């Protein structure tokens, strides 16, 4: 677009004028070609948040076409899917055809997102013709899903093009190219300012189990595969240098166990589990996600406070419950704008929830909706209705997301917890928060918040002899596995205080944390 036209459009948008019918283009047609920084705020101000949600068009499979739908630009569209023969022993791929016709103007475009639980991709169309999207190879399990449920198609507001382009740059996780260890490391170095220092072997500590006690905290950082990619995103948005946690616990007979929320069972479900130390440790040693693991022993004073009886009772009562997807996102979002590295924002979170609801209706996002309903004191509203209701009450969506989670909220699937909320709730039950228990919501803590708590051993001479045998300079805790040094900036630095971590921003690359947020 010529600069003068861009300027004209900008002026029109910024002065709030809308273009008359006689104009050769519609203001929304222009949004996609504007830079993301301009198009997205403009789009936000032109619509209320509900209008920005992706619109589900339908699901297309090899046996079910979508015969006709109306886009924002093209008023007649069709889609069908052809499966392609596998080359060699793979599962084969597919070609998605999208036929667009009858555009309402010559400048408009339609923007679509295509999703299965295994991939998200997108494309946009200016021309009336049959477009194709080629999927070279289905992932494990994806073909079965696509045969049964199809590929979901979402129509997006055209102004989101810039957002998708920006996301694509930032998040190779969406780009189907796999998410190898080197991309995770490169991403964290570039966007988070993390450093990855190679350790000297051996990479596995010669652990003497007798030196591990109830309440010792396990911090994990996975850097490969699907979990690696997921953790990388979580680290980036929260500023944590680890992506998963677990806790050590001895039973009445002194046997050592590991309590973990997010343990994957045979059926691929993420559950809360209590595993014998030996079983847990051997799973870590063969984990393809290449976990880097540190053991953070409790400070002797905290250890003497730790009530093993109540901790065990809590762990046993939670065993078998599902992983807490609902509180995961809320622990990260504490503020209405201070938690979203660009190009993320509250509306994009809403878009992700919308897509997710379609793909995994029985799963995560219903719980997010449930959590949002709790914030409004409503019941059973779906996301658009929630946004409507919030709008009616004058609460912007970003502010709704920032309302603190309450530890005693019970969801339809019980009191589930994320990995770190599980550990901290156990600490609470065990008495580590003392009299502050009633004024601390552990579901608001990220992993970073947890390892920053001043609960851990601060005297290096008291660490077990097998700790740090090869780390130079020595770490103030025990890294027990991994070929990269697991640094935890600001480890063991903050005494708990009332309403801790309920209003903390988290913006890369510094993740500045105001005192007492
Ligand atoms: C879907 O549409 C394509 C193209 O129009 C056609 O070749 C195919 O037979 C249709 N499939 C079904 C299941 O209707
Ligand atoms: C599939 O083929 C590749 C080489 O083309 C081979 O390395 C692999 O072992 C084969 N897998 C199976 C399950 O046969
Ligand atoms: C591991 O530690 C034990 C003592 O706890 C010792 O006997 C053994 O030799 C050590 N193994 C290695 C490989 O250092
Ligand atoms: C642990 O908590 C239980 C239940 O509140 C209590 O009866 C017990 O005395 C506590 N144990 C210690 C060592 O404080």
Give a verbal description of the structure.
With 517 residues, the protein is α+β, with helices and mostly antiparallel strands. It folds into 4 domains: 3-49, no CATH class; 53-174, no CATH class; 209-326 and 414-481, no CATH class; 335-402, no CATH class. Helix content is 32%, strand content 18%. It is built from 17 helices and 14 strands. The protein has helices at 3-14, 27-30, 36-46, 142-149, 161-170, 181-192, 225-238, 277-285, 300-305, 308-318, 325-332, 346-359, 364-376, 383-392, 397-402, 419-429, 447-452, and strands spanning 55-60, 66-69, 74-84, 93-103, 110-116, 119-125, 130-135, 151-156, 217-221, 244-250, 256-264, 270-276, 292-296, 478-481. The strands form 3 sheets. A 6-stranded antiparallel sheet has the order 12-11-10-9-13-14, with helices on both faces. Strands 1-8-5-6 form a 4-stranded antiparallel sheet. A 4-stranded antiparallel sheet has the order 2-3-4-7, with no helix packed on it. A hairpin with a 4-residue loop joins strand 2 (66-69) and strand 3. Helix 3 (36-46) packs across helix 5 and helix 10 packs antiparallel against helix 16. The chain is globular and about 75 Å long. It starts with a helix and ends in a 36-residue tail after the last strand. Bound molecules: 2-acetamido-2-deoxy-beta-D-glucopyranose (4 copies). The site of one 2-acetamido-2-deoxy-beta-D-glucopyranose has 2 residues, from loops.
């Amino acid at each position: 677009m010529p600069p003068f036209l861009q300027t004209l459009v900008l002026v029109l948008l910024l002065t709030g004028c809308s273009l008359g019918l006689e104009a050769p283009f519609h203001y929304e047609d222009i949004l996609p070609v504007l830079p993301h920084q301009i198009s997205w705020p403009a789009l936000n101000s032109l619509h209320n948040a509900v209008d920005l949600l992706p619109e589900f068009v339908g699901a297309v499979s090899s046996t079910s076409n979508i015969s006709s739908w109306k886009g924002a630009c093209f008023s007649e569209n069709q889609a069908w899917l052809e499966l392609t023969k596998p080359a060699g022993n793979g599962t084969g791929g597919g070609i998605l055809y999208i036929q667009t016709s009858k555009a309402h103007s010559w400048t408009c475009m339609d923007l679509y997102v295509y999703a299965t639980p295994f991939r998200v991709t997108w494309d946009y169309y200016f021309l009336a013709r049959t477009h194709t999207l080629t999927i070279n190879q289905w992932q494990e399990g994806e073909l079965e899903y696509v045969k049964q449920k199809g590929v979901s198609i979402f129509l997006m507001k055209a102004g989101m093009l810039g957002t998708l382009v920006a996301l694509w740059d930032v998040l190779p996780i969406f780009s189907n190219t796999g998410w190898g260890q080197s991309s995770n490391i490169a991403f964290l170095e570039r966007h988070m300012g993390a450093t990855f220092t190679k350790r000297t072997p051996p990479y596995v500590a010669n652990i003497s189990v007798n030196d591990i006690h109830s309440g010792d905290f396990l911090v994990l950082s996975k850097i490969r595969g699907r979990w690696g990619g997921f953790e990388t995103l979580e680290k980036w948005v929260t500023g944590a240098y680890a992506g998963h946690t677990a806790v050590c616990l001895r039973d009445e007979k002194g046997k050592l166990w590991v309590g973990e929320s997010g343990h994957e069972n045979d059926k691929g479900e993420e559950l809360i589990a209590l595993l014998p130390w030996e079983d847990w440790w051997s799973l870590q040693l063969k984990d393809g996600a290449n976990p880097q693991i540190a053991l953070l022993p409790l400070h002797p004073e905290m250890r003497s406070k730790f009530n093993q009886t109540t901790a065990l009772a809590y762990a046993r009562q939670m065993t078998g419950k599902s992983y807490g997807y609902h509180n995961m996102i809320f622990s990260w979002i504490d503020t209405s704008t201070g938690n979203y590295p660009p190009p993320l924002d509250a509306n994009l979170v809403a878009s992700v929830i919308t897509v997710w609801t379609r793909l995994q209706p029985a799963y995560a996002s219903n719980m997010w909706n449930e959590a949002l309903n709790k914030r409004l004191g409503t019941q059973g509203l779906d996301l658009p209705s929630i946004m409507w209701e919030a709008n009616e009450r004058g609460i912007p969506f970003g502010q709704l997301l920032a309302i603190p989670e309450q530890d005693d909220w019970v969801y339809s699937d019980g009191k589930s917890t994320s990995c770190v909320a599980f550990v901290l709730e156990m600490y609470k039950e065990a008495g580590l928060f003392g009299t502050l228990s009633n004024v601390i919501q552990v579901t608001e803590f990220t992993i970073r918040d947890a390892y920053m708590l001043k609960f851990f051993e601060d005297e290096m001479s008291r660490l077990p002899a097998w700790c740090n045998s090869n780390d130079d300079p020595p770490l103030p805790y025990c890294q027990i596995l991994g070929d990269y040094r697991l640094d935890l900036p600001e480890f063991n630095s903050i005494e708990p205080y009332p309403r801790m971590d309920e209003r903390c921003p988290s913006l890369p690359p510094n993740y500045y944390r105001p005192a007492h947020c």
